[in-house]
């Protein structure tokens, strides 16, 4: 029996609560309205029947709003909803058709900063729990809410919070803060995120720039860096640092099946970017595999010398390159940094400075985990169809959840892929909010049953 199959979602309540949330600015980058928004979220949780408290780490760190409701029928299984109440800055204001913190409703859309990212997603989770309680007087499993306030500035303290409140946050599965819905209204169920290692390499050769006639005697730091960077990867994209792929395991049969079915139109993609071929001339399944599970060594920026108008014969004194490496599961960022350092030293580049800006491991939930089919079933019932994605090509702070809480983590949501998140005129689609709220009900039900 599915008591929640015909659950009643009160959309007018949902919309007005979402508007209330949007009207409270909460820009983490500017520390604007963070405390106020945390309190508002706590109030909304309580109003929906969820016990809630504000958790703190230390001064200057945005609080986490924590919510919990115990299941009477099934107190041994716990599902967590991870979301964030902070938003991106709304600038440039003049490009908004309605004020960014107004929550203006037009037809099927609610406009405002955070309408989708992440206040829209958050409200679907809260209203799902509320609908569940109203329909059945209980929740199908214990529910925990972890709602942070620093996601848009990089979730700098989420790992510390998870460590500090490990026991409080313990759970058997996590629903990630968002999920895309494609142009054909299919939610994309994401099972993972790649990791990221961001470094800066630099060479300082002389104490000042020199006349380029002196290039016969003074070494050029740009050449030096080019030579070093050249040793990091081959022209097919393979990273040449010793043991870089050592711990990486191949895709499972099940993963390969999903990757094969992944909707990716090579020609559309090439047209979109105006390119003729892919790295290493990848085609078909190899291009899909690279998106889902390929590691990269990408030159994000390279500066040295003069790049202004006209000519200037100068020999620069220093050079600098910023490189981002996308990491795949089992690559430990700390270990990879050591390998990079060792590589440069062994190739004779010990004069090159290395600065590490960011290191984050990849996370991926096993596609044969029962949680995956529970979410998939819920999505199919609510949206009519859905797509499983083994891993997003991008990066998010999923690893600490999987690592510290030892729980599978899945992303699904109501974020229409063209909903202008992080841009002016961000909006949420009311039809998708409704479908996602129902989907969250069914996820809880499926999760509680097994
Ligand atoms: Zn965002």
TrEMBL record:
Keyword Iron: no
Keyword field: Hydrolase, Metal-binding, Protease
NCBIfam families: PRK06446.1
UniProt GO BP: proteolysis
Keyword Secreted annotated: no
The protein's name in its UniProt record: Succinyl-diaminopimelate desuccinylase protein
GO molecular function: metal ion binding; peptidase activity; succinyl-diaminopimelate desuccinylase activity
Domain of life: Archaea
EC number assigned by the record: 3.5.1.18
Primary enzyme class: hydrolase
Residue span(s) of domain Peptidase M20 dimerisation: 193-348
